[in-house]
Amino acid sequence: MSLTPAQAVRDLSEAFAARDLNAALACFAPGDDVGYAGSEKAETAVGRAELTALLGEVFLRTEAYAWEAHDVTVHTFGDRAYVFAEAEGAARPDDGADENFPYRVSGLVEQVEGRWLWRHCQGSEPSS
User: Fold this and answer.
1) C-beta of residue 45 within 8 angstroms of C-beta of residue 53
2) Which of 17, 47, 63, 107 allows an S-S link to 121, with CB 3.0 to 4.6 Å?
């Protein structure tokens, strides 16, 4: 259960690591007013149908992704919050060694029935 807005970052990472589409979709607020932007140019989705299609494609890749936040900033406004997390990302190929890289996760989360869920999430790989 997401007791703090920062938990939304961990919950989505766990869903990505497991390549669990239902768990990932459950990390987003209900309804169609949701969005996601990944680090690749074509990784954008607006609405539940696009989000489902995009994450479904990502989870079919031959590697899983995850991230561990080490520095999280949260600005809370009632039942909504802006979350910005510096993280260590990992690509875990099905048949190879993990590749680690800097990663950032940010976006708007909303408290729904005691759990912080993404309204819009953006992940990016900062260049050095």
Assistant:
1) yes
2) 107
Candidates 11, 4, 6; CA nearest to 27 is 11
Place of tokens 């140019």: 41
CA proximity to 74, closest of 6, 1, 2: 6
What whole-number distance in Å separates Cα of residue 117 and Cα of residue 62? 27
Please state, as a whole number, how many other Cβ atoms lie within 10 Å of the Cβ of residue 93.
12
Mean of pLDDT values over 53-57 = 98
d(CA 12, CA 88): 14
| pLDDT tens digit sequence for 109-125 | 999 999 999 999 999 99
Mean pLDDT of 88-92: 97
**Residue ranges of the alpha helices (H) in the chain?**
7-18, 21-25, 48-59
Class of residue 9 by CB neighbours under 10 A (exposed 0-12, middle 13-18, buried 19+): buried
The predicted model scores a pTM of 0.94
SS3 (DSSP) at 48: helix
